[in-house]
Design brief:
It is globular and about 35 Å long. It has helices spanning 21-34, 52-59, and strands at 11-17, 39-45, 66-70, 85-88, 91-94. Strand 1, helix 1 and strand 2 form a beta-alpha-beta unit. With 97 residues, it is of the alpha/beta class. A three-stranded parallel β-sheet has the order 1-2-3, covered by helices on one side. Strands 4-5 form a two-stranded antiparallel sheet. The longest helix is centred in the first third of the chain and has 14 residues, at 21-34.
């Protein structure tokens, strides 16, 4: 299950998780099958020990464009727009919306 893409990343897919073990495994397999542009997957977790991190560790050798990102700005995804930021390629980019 190699990335198959040599071009720069076109799409960043954010997956917020909280103990999503099996669900995350299924979602990642679906994404690999249907996303046909160079992409990265950021699995965003709130707390260390989230069982989703086991899936990231297990699948990352075969999915090199996926990584876990620790949300340190507060639990959940419902935050003011000015606080929603995503780390990508070493830069902080502001999400609008």
């Amino acid at each position: 299950m190699s990335s198959g893409f040599d071009a720069p990343t076109v799409v960043t897919i954010l997956i917020p998780v909280k103990n999503e073990g099996l669900n995350l495994t299924i979602m990642l397999k679906i994404l690999r099958a249907v996303v046909d542009v160079p992409h990265e997957v950021l699995v965003v977790f709130d707390k260390e020990g989230d069982e989703s991190l086991v899936v990231v560790d297990e699948m990352s050798p075969n999915y090199p464009t996926m990584r876990a990102v620790h949300n340190t700005r507060g639990a959940g995804i419902l935050q003011p727009p000015q606080q929603r930021r995503v780390e990508r390629s070493g830069e902080m980019q502001r999400r609008v919306g």
